[in-house]
Amino acid sequence: MGRKIVASEEFHKEFKELIERYVPKRRMNKLILKYETLIKILVDEGEKAITQPYFEKLKGTGDVELYSLRLEKKNPNIRIIFSFWKNHVVLLSAFLEKEVSDYDKAIDKAKKRSSNLHL
Known about the structure:
The protein is of the alpha+beta class. It is 43% helix and 24% strand. The protein has helices at residues 9-22, 25-45, 100-115, and strands spanning 4-7, 55-57, 67-70, 78-85, 88-96. It has a five-stranded mixed sheet. Strand 4 (78-85) and strand 5 (88-96) form a beta hairpin. The two termini are 19 Å apart. InterPro entries: HigB-like (IPR009241).
């Protein structure tokens, strides 16, 4: 049974800005196709997808279970933080990872957005 993807306006805006700013036009279609493929895996497999190479469960996120999706292994290192809620995959934050503190900021943002969800 597939899950439904849910994302806030803030997520869509962040993701669009990252793609437009950091992804060369010649690679944009390839990256968007990869994003769509990885999202489809989440929809189809849910929590089981976390065992695959482009996904990971984040540690130290407190009482909110958060996960990361890595679009590229190289630059730009765009990450998406998401969670599972009932039958939903909730896309919470998109960011460019350059250093560890980038993850910390994105996790804080994802937690705040998660607490404001009204699904």
